[in-house]
Amino acid sequence: MIISAVGGRPSLLFLGVSLFTAQAGDYYVSTQGNDSSPGTSAQPFRTITRAYSLATPGSTIIVLPGVYTDYTRNWGLHLGRSGTAASPIILKSQIRGGAIIDGQNAADRNVGIYLDGSYNIIDGFEIRGGPHGGITIWGNYNQILNNKIHHNGNPGSASTLGQDGVYSSENTRNTVYMGNYIHDNGRAGSNLDHALYLCGDNEMIINNVMVRNAAYGLHIAGYETVSNMKVYNNVMAHNGKSGIIFWMPVSGVDIRNNIIYQNGKFGIESYDAHGGGVVIDRNLVIGNGLGDYGLARDGSDFTYTVGATISSAPNFVDSTSGGFDAHLSAGSPAIGSGGNLSSTFNTDLDGATRSASGAWDLGAYNYGTTGTAPSNPTPPATATRTPIVSVRASDPRAVIGTSNTGTFTFTRTGNTSAPLTVNFFLGGSATKWIDYRRPEGDMPTSVTIPAGARAYKLTIMAVANETQAQSRTISVTLLPDAAYTAGVRGHDATMTIVNKGSGKNKTKGH
Fold first, then answer.
1. Domain of residue 120, CATH code
2. Neighbours of 118 (CB within 10 A)
3. Domain residue limits at 477
4. What CATH code is carried by the domain that includes residue 451?
5. 182, 216, 248: which is the final residue of a domain?
6. What is the rounded CA–CA span in Å between residue 332 and residue 4?
7. H/E element holding 502?
8. pLDDT by 10s per residue, the chain, length 510
9. What is the dihedral of CA 316, 166, 162, 75, to 10 degrees?
10. Phi, psi (rounded to 5 degrees) for 49
11. Would you give the distance in Å from CA 289 to the centre of its chain?
C-alpha cells in the first residue's frame, strides 16, 4: 500500500504495511503561541518540545512558519516517543521549509534533532545550526521526508567523531530518507563529515540532493554489516570527497538511477569494504576528480556488479557549485535513461508523479512536468514546462533610516510570455512595518514577474525605530503553487537590517 506524507508529497509503496490512520489529536505550534495553551489551531503551543511531549501513536504536530530553537540540553530537539506501523507520530511543517529548527551552533545542543523513538515522520522542515550534526537516528521505522538539512556540524573542532547532515546507528533499521536537500554540512576540509552517514539495515535513500558537504555524499558504514540498502534517484554533486563510499561489511546494496557529478575524488569508491551483493546500474557518473569508480581500494574485496553507466554531462539547470540546481535541462542524457522503480516509489523530489511504466529519468527530478523523455531530444521552443522560481538576496543588507536599501530578486526559468505571480512567506527576527517595508509604503507577500521578464526585484527599506542599534533579519521563503516549482537553488533568502555604522561598507550583489 501507499504511505504518503501529509500534504501529498513523496509516497512509497510498502508491501505488508497498513496505511496509517490518525488515532490521536492534532497539535499546533507557532512562534506566536504559548505552551500553556491547549495546542489547537486557534491556540497553538509555542514549542515543538511541548507538543511532542503529548504525542501518542497517530498524533500529528503541525508547525507553523518561523524559527524554533527549543531543545533538551545535550541532545537537541529530542524525539523519543514511538508511534506504530499503522499510526506513526507525524511532525510536519505546515509549509514546506517554512518551519526552521535552528540549533544556533550552541555547544550544549549536540544535534538539531535527536531521534531515538520509532515510527516517527519528520516532514518539511529546514534543519540548520546543529553543532555536531543535523539529525541523529537511533530508532527504527522512521521517515525523514522533504527537509532542507544544511549548515550542520560546521563549527571547527579536533573531534574524530563525524559531524553529518544525518547519521543512523548500526542498531537502526527500516529508515526512509526521501525528498531531502542536504547541503553544506560538516567541517571545512574534513574527511569525517558527510551528507548521510548510514549504518542501519533496510534503509532507503530516494530523491535526495546532496551537494557541497565536507566529505562524502553518502557514507555506507557497515559496523554490523549494512544490509538491504536501496539508493535510488539521488543527486550527489560537488561534495569534498566522493559521491558514495563503502566501508566495512555490506550485504545487498542496490544503487540505481542516480547522478553523481563533480565530487572531489571518485563517483563511488570503497575503503576496506567486504561482503557483497552490491549492484550499481543505470547511473550517470561524470566529472569526479579521480574517476567514476574506485571499488577495490584499500583492502576492499566485496563483490559487486556494475551495469550501464552514462559518462556525459547531465545538463542540470545550473551545474555550478554555488548556484546548483539539479533539475534537468532539455537534451540531458539523464532523460529516459533510468530503470522503472514504480514498485517501490512513484514521485520525484518536487512531488511530481513518475510513470508507472517505461523508462524513468535519472536523478531527483523528472524532466518537465511528466518525467517522460521527449520524442525529440531538443523540444521545440513552444514546449511548455512548469517554471522553476528562485529567490536570493541580491543586495543582502538594508540600513536603518537611510536610502541604503536591500533587494530580494525573484527569478524564473522557462517561457516568459505571460506574467507570473510568486507567493512567499516573510520570516526572520525583523517585524514587517515596524522594522521594514517597501519604499512605496506597502509590504506585499507576493510579487509578479512581468510578461517578457525573467526576474523581479523587491526593494526593502529599513525603518528607523527605537531598536535600530540592533541588527535584525528578514527571510523570504517561497510558497508552493501550481503555477511554478520552488527550486532548491534559492528556495529561501535572508537579508540583514543594520544600523548606520554597520551599513557604510555595504556592497552590492553578494
1. 2.160.20.10
2. 23
3. 388-503
4. 2.60.40.2030
5. 182
6. 30
7. helix 500-503
8. 233 333 344 556 543 333 333 345 799 999 999 999 999 999 999 999 999 999 999 999 999 999 999 999 999 999 999 999 999 999 999 999 999 999 999 989 899 999 999 999 999 999 999 999 999 999 999 999 999 999 999 999 888 889 999 999 999 999 999 999 999 999 999 999 999 999 999 999 999 999 999 999 999 999 999 999 999 999 999 999 999 999 999 999 999 999 999 999 999 999 999 999 999 999 999 999 999 999 999 999 999 999 999 999 999 999 999 999 999 999 999 999 999 999 999 999 998 999 999 999 999 999 973 333 332 323 323 334 568 788 888 888 888 878 889 999 888 877 788 999 998 888 888 888 888 999 988 889 899 999 988 889 999 999 876 554 567 889 888 887 778 877 543 446 888 888 865 433 333 232
9. 150
10. -55, -45
11. 25
The whole-angstrom separation of Cα 297 and Cα 278 is: 15
Nearest-angstrom CA–CA distance, 222 and 396: 44
Listed in sequence order, the residues at least 6 apart from 356 whose beta carbon sits closer than 8 Å to its beta carbon are 340, 342, 346
Give 372's DSSP letter.
P
In a domain, 480, yes or no: yes
Residue 138: all three cell numbers together: 537511533
Rg, C-alpha atoms of the chain: 23
Residue where the block lists cell 553518502: 218
Grid cell listed for 163: 559531524
- Helix, strand, or coil here: 4? strand
Predicted model pTM = 0.72
Give domain status of residue 210, yes or no: no
- As for how many domains the chain has, the answer is 2
Helix (H, G, I), strand (E, B) or coil at 303: coil
Q: Which of 182, 200, 216 is the last residue of a domain?
A: 182
Query: Is 189 within the bounds of a domain?
Result: no
**Short-list 149, 137, 259, CA closest to 213:** 149
Query: Per the domain annotation, does 337 fall within a domain?
Result: no
Q: CB burial class (10 A; 0-12, 13-18, 19+) of residue 344?
A: middle
Label the pairing between strands 133-137 and 244-256.
unpaired
